[in-house]
Amino acid sequence: MKSKKIFLVCLAFVFLIIVIICVVTYPGLTEKNDLLMDVKLYYYNAAENTVVPEKRSINKSDNVNEIISSVELAYKEGPKTPGLTMPFPEGVSFVINNNDSKLKDVLDINITGSFDSLKETERLICIGSLVYTFTDIDSVEDVRLFVEGKSVSDMYGMYSELNRENTVNNPIINPEKIDRQDVVLYFLDAEGKGLAAEERSIEVKQSQTLEYQIVEQLTMGPVNESLKAAVPQGTKIKDIKTEDGICYVNLSGDFISNLSGDANTEKLTIYSIVNSLTELNTVNKVQFLIEGERISEINGHYDFSRTFERDETLIDGN
Questions:
Q1: How far apart are CA 56 and CA 40, in angstroms?
Q2: 242 & 206 share domain
Q3: Are 238 and 157 in contact, with CB atoms under 8 Å apart?
């Protein structure tokens, strides 16, 4: 029994010596894990019709730009897991612009190629894949996406800054579970002297804000033939977002150039949008922007640099 104990002690001692020799001779064996960091890359899973994470290791760095570049390179290598595929088809890719130090926590990505020719669901899969992959990086909170230099908010009415709260990773909606929203829209009454309400049930798109869709409905005009559209024809929605109860409505220059010079008509046009948006509990005021900029006035009638609150005195019956 005693000899057996001596044998085990000797064996343990020899093993310890071997470990020490390995550490001294091959320090990389113990240092390897300290040089790597795990990230999640999101690829398309056709079976589940969604994007799912694949764990990958990249070189560790304290420089966020180096981490972003490493994630980009690893992502473009494509998935290693069977059943996962690259969301971007041949001829469509992206480049990262992370050199603007003024944008904290925001990453700019420019998609190149024939992205606009893809189906909406295919585009949303690509967008979800990018947003989920790069917001997995601790220092990246939001992603601003561009297609050949043009913002996706301008092209598709999406949020200007995308994150996991406003981006879907599964863009397919079951037809039996389509979300709809009852909204109240305000158009010109039959005489064009006031605003009349029109209730409408609209399908809520996952990729657009409800505020955007309300203004979009206003540009389409009323269903009731006795009412008239207040928003000038040709007006394009550049971007719409709500922060702290203020809805920022960014419209194209056509909104100004196609307005009539009549002060009352301009007032009704303004409050067609303001009153429709303030039907939402999340919107208290509206700030208009034209081509992304605040303007002081329109035709000398109204100060557009200020915010507008709801005005129910313009609504018929009040």
A1: 6
A2: yes
A3: no
CA 292 to chain centre: 18
For 41-55, b/e burial (b = at least 16 CB within 10 A) is bbbbbeeeebbbbbe
Sign of CA dihedral 235, 238, 242, 245: negative
Q: Does residue 273 lie in a domain region?
A: yes
Element (H, E) at 115: none
Structure tokens at 196: 């009349």
Q: How far apart are CA 224 and CA 189, in angstroms?
A: 10
pLDDT tens for 175-223 read 434 577 899 999 999 888 899 999 998 877 766 788 988 999 999 899 8
Q: Using the CB atoms, write b or e for 121-134: b if 16+ within 10 Å.
A: ebbbbbbbbbbbbb
Q: For tokens 């992205």, what's the residue? A: 115
Q: Calculate helix-pair angle for 210-220, 263-277, nearest 10 degrees.
A: 140
Q: What are phi and psi of 101, to 5 degrees?
A: -70, -15
In this structure, the answer to whether residues 215 and 106 fall within a common structural domain is no
Domain that holds residue 114: 34-156
Q: Is residue 12 part of a domain?
A: no
Q: Is the pLDDT of residue 229 over 80?
A: yes
Q: Return d(Cα 252, Cα 254) in angstroms, integer.
A: 5
The residue assigned the tokens 């049930």 is 201
Are 153 and 160 within 8 A, CB to CB?
A: yes
DSSP annotation of 315 reads B
Count of domains forming the chain: 2
Residues with Cβ < 8 Å from 90, sequence gap 6 or more?
A: none
Max CA-CA distance within the chain?
Answer: 111
Please check whether residue 89 is in contact with residue 97, taking contact to mean a CB–CB distance below 8 angstroms.
no
The predicted-structure confidence for 106-163, as pLDDT tens digits, reads as follows 899 999 999 988 888 888 899 999 999 999 998 899 999 999 988 887 787 777 888 8
pTM of the model: 0.53
